[in-house]
Amino acid sequence: MGYSKKYLPLFIGLAMGVGVFLGSKLNFSNPSAKLFSYNAKKEKLNRLIDYIDYEYVDEINTDSIVDVTVNRILENLDPHSVYIPPEELEGITESMQGDFIGIGVSYYPFRDTISVINTIKGGPSEKSGILAGDRILMADQDTLYGERLRRDRLADKLKGELNSQVQLKVYRRGKGVFDVVVKRGRVPLQSVDASYMLQEKMGYIKVNRFAETTYTEFKRALDSLQDMGAEALVVDLRDNGGGFIAPALKMADEFLKDDELIMFTKNKKGAIENNYATKNGSFEKGDIYVLINENSASASEIFAGAIQDNDRGTIVGRRSYGKGLVQREMALGDGSAIRLTISRYYTPTGRSIQKPYSNGNKEYFNEYLERYKNGELQNADSIQVADSLKFKTPGGKTVYGGGGIIPDIFVSKDTTRVGETLDYMLRSGRMGGYIFEELDKKREYYNQLTKDQFKEEIQIDNEFAEGFLAYTRRNGVDLKLNNYREQLKKYLKAIMAQQLFGTNEFEKIINQDDKMIQKVLSLSPE
């Protein structure tokens, strides 16, 4: 049973005090743990919680009191100190680890059935012979179809212990129902979406987040591109919200000379920790271009700031998000955790790129709207900067702190917003659902296509595009895209390529005529 709303002010009034009590439960692995030893104040609040739990006249869920209290405390600290409840922690941890234990398929709930979009290359399902278009009906004795089976529960049925076996009942058009045994294995969650050659001597790598495996993925891609002759590189960090700092530091190290400063952090006591490049860099001489936009944050900004402040490369795009706070995840002992801001980071020239948050979280997170209103997303001259936050790089270039990384070369945002509409249709799953259904009509033909055959044989015509618009109308969305058929057709082909061959082929198609990439190509001596 929950607590009545009329008691909420009472409990919120206790927030700061209970926070001290909760602090004693935090799991620190450093000497600061002594701060949480016994004292009378903590014992007093501990007793208060017990009194409410055992003696209060109405039934009160003290766990809920604590959750509300923790959230309210953190909201009053900064926008990035957050509480993570137990039911969310596993998924977040899994995402940032870079892999999970499962059977290795991407799937789409088509007509209430798990329908395989594709299998992870070299993964358990591919090894067991599962193909795109297969329907997974059962896992061991569990039924995996039906209207009420939620997507998250479907995923739980397919996960398990490493090397454990699961017997699947699978339906394939033309073959019927059959059984297949799959041994669960480690399934990678890619943080490098694409790596390919843009030109004869220019490579391209897109990183979607910074997870534990990101540097390993990035280094593999970089080595491969260098083997293909890359002497210049585009690192695409657009819409990369960050993650772990360590992979960003290792990535920057690939491009900076020995002992060049990558970034430094400063905590509440003023203690400074510097991070320098090592002798491990393998791309210290070639041209580098970093793409950023208003959604590039945190570790993305560390990387871009290191490249910019060391006069190493060219930053292209729009001003980044502006997150310069460092969090540490700390367990609360009940399966939940907090991410608490423990320091600020600074770029090599000494600038903080953290945007202000003194006016509250709502205004902080709505700052993007202000950028849109003041014209910053269309015109570099509209970027508001203070002279007091002006810094100089060793090469004499002027850079600014106080809120994000300002690019060296500005590229405006699409004013038609058609790209945003198409991105939304992609994220919502509607575009992917339509493509899956179309592929499923001729699954045998599509599954045997090579990449070269796909490129030559598959053309998205107006009829196919109109079919998608009709599909969205049937699902309650009327898109006004008659004047943007070419962009729509490009997206549809890109998603088809993604479902057949993976994200690398998707990015190759989406990046055709991309404004930022075209700007880089115009800057390149090649």
TrEMBL record:
SMART domains with a match to the protein in the record = PDZ (SM00228), TSPc (SM00245)
Location of the Tail specific protease domain: 175-356
Protease among the record's keywords?
Answer: yes
Record keywords = Hydrolase, Membrane, Protease, Serine protease, Transmembrane, Transmembrane helix
Q: Which residues form the PDZ domain?
A: 99-174
Q: Does the keyword Protease apply?
A: yes
Q: Which residues cross the membrane?
A: 7-24
| A Pfam family that the UniProt record links to this protein | Peptidase_S41
The family database entries (CDD domains) matched by this protein are listed as: Peptidase_S41_CPP (cd07560)
Q: Which top-level group of life is the source organism from?
A: Bacteria
PANTHER family xref list:
CARBOXY-TERMINAL PROCESSING PROTEASE CTPA (PTHR32060:SF30), TAIL-SPECIFIC PROTEASE (PTHR32060)
Q: Which family does it belong to?
A: Belongs to the peptidase S41A family.
Annotated protein name in UniProt: S41 family peptidase
